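Hi U.,

Before I forget, here's the chain from the pilot set. I'm dumping it here mostly so it's searchable later in email.
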Amino acid sequence: MSVSGLATKGARLTVTETLSVQTPHTGVAMLQLNRPDRLNAINDIMVGELNKTLAALGADSSVNAVVMTGAGRGFCAGADLSLLSSVATEGLDSVRRAQAVEPASGGVREDARADFQKKYSYFPSMSKPVIAAVNGPCVGLGLVIALYCDLRFASDAARFSTAFARRGLIAEYGMAWMLPRLVGHPNAVDLMFSARMIDAAEAFRMGLVNQVIPQDVFREKVREYAADLASNVSPRSLRVMKRQIYEAMFQTLAEAFETSQREMLASLQCADFKEGVAHFVEKRTPVFTGK
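Structure:
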C-alpha cells in the first residue's frame, strides 16, 4: 500500500476496511479509526491495517505529522467483544495468534530499540510525531494506543479507562511500563487497579493528556497544532528529538548528554539548520526539507 502524494490539501483516501486517511493540510495526515458502530473497537483486521498504514505514512516524504482519531463519538473502545469472546473460548492458541502480530517492517526505524518494535509499542519508532486526538471513550487497548502516541489531545467529551482489571485481564502490551512514566506511579496504580473511568479534566490533571479542547472546535484545533508542526518546524529536528526522547528512557544523564553533543554537531552541518537561521533573519516562512 502506498500513500505517496497524500499531502495535497483536502485530499482524502480510504485506505483500508477499518481505517481512513485525510490530508486537510500540507504535511498532515489525519488517520481515523473507522468502525463507528463499534466505537472503533479493535479487531484482528484493524491491527494489521493500522501498522501497514502507519508504515506507509512513515515512508511518505510528503507527510510530516500524523494525527490519529476515531470516527463518530468515540476514539477506541478497546478490543472488539467478539475478539475477547474468541480468546475466552479458544484459549491459549487464540492468544498466541494475537500476540504474534508484529509491526510492518516499513514502519520501524532500523536503529530503533527492540522495545519499540513490539505490537503497539512501535509508534515511538516512527520518525514522525504521532498525535492522539481523543474525541470520546478511550478504553483498554484504545488507551494503550494513545499511550504510545507522542502527544495526546482530548476533547472535553473524552473518557479514559484501563478496563483490564474489570475483564479479568492484566496491564497489557507494556502499559505497566508506559503509564507510570506519563502519570506517575500513584496515578498509574490507581488507574490500573480500579479500572475506573475518568473524564478529560482529571486526565489533564494527571498528565495523561497535553490539552483539553471543547468538542465543537476539537478537530480544528488539533489540525492547527499538527499543521504548525508540519509547516514551521524542521522535520529533521523532530526526527532526531523523537529518537532522543525515547532513547533517554533507557539512558543515564551522561549518556543522554553525550548523545546530544553528537547530534548538535551533526545538526550544525545540515540544510535545515541553515534554513532555520535564514528564515528567521529574513522574516519569512521556513522551507524545511528534512535534511
